[in-house]
Amino acid sequence: xxxxxxxxxxxxxxxxxxxxxxxxxxxxxxxxxxxxxxxxxxxxxxxxxxxxxxxxxxxxxxxxxxxxxxxxxxxxxxxxxxxxxxxxxxxxxxxxxxxxxxxxxxxxxxxxxxxxxxxxxxxxxxxxxxxxxxxxxxxxxxxxxxxxxxxxxxxxxxxxxxxxxxxxxxxxxxxxxxxxxxxxxxxxxxxxxxxxxxxxxxxxxxxxxxxxxxxxxxxxxxxxxxxxxxxxxxxxxxxxxxxxxxxxxxxxxxxxxxxxxxxxxxxxxxxxxxxxxxxxxxxxxxxxxxxxxxxxxxx
Length: 299
Fold this sequence. Notes:
By secondary structure, the chain is α/β, with parallel strands linked by helices. The chain folds into two domains: 5-162 and 263-296, Rossmann fold, CATH 3.40.50; 176-260, DNA polymerase, domain 1 (Orthogonal Bundle), CATH 1.10.150.20. It is 45% helix and 10% strand. The chain is built from 13 helices and six strands. The chain has helices at residues 10-20, 34-50, 65-70, 83-98, 111-124, 163-170, 177-184, 199-209, 212-218, 240-248, 250-260, 277-287, 290-296; strands spanning 5-9, 54-59, 102-105, 129-132, 146-151, 158-161. Strands 3-2-1-4-5-6 form a six-stranded mixed beta sheet, with helices on both faces. Strand 5 (146-151) and strand 6 (158-161) form a beta hairpin. It is elongated and about 70 Å long. The mean pLDDT is 94. Residues 218-238 are annotated as: Disordered. InterPro entries: 5-3_exonucl_a-hlix_arch_N (IPR020046), 5-3_exonuclease (IPR002421), 5-3_exonuclease_C_sf (IPR036279), DNA_polI_H3TH (IPR020045), FEN (IPR038969), HhH2 (IPR008918), PIN-like_dom_sf (IPR029060). Keywords: DNA-binding, Hydrolase, Nuclease. One of its GO terms (molecular function) is 5'-flap endonuclease activity. Residues 3-280 form the 5'-3' exonuclease domain.
């Protein structure tokens, strides 16, 4: 069996490494280089563990234009990117390419959309994917051929989340993850969700009613095109009061679903290929990561 497609959420890796590694680690230009060093080391460690057939480094906008247009609060609470990180961000694609890893950029969309497109495409053709990310919305990509590798907690290690793992962590199936976000919200992205609905209530409602539209129908909300709502179906967490809240916030919930939904992109397929350790070593050395370059050359 050929190895999986290994997909990396590089924007997350860069942020993670920038804040995890000391700023005293400098590059050839005298500026902190931890973002690039930590990112490359994580990618190399995951390659060592999974022996992939292909590697893709996904990039994209920090916040997709259409998501901000739908929800101005999307990512608005986040601090601006530090200048030191921006400097390395602009170098990351060339560094990844030097290792022979495919680089795919979502343009006005996000790395998540790139990853969702490529993992879904590979799964539909019978291939396997391993997605390395911390983003909850990418758990929607998990299926029998796709797993997510994400932080286990505050430590540096990653754990593998399969279909059962999504159910265990979130209380829903992977195909219900976007519905869950629409109901409970996602503070990390600035998605508010429906007032008064937490993770457990949202999961319970979805277990009974299937998806967001099923929950809204059970609450007696109008349909997405203004169709009159029916009588509420109370029970399994859907109280009269909560049904009223869902009717009041139905349009907001549908908006939040649209914000969280991954978009399919017209992006080039990722060819099989091995890591170019020599090319990566040259690029690392040029940036001032001498120890990494030495390791890549077997020293």
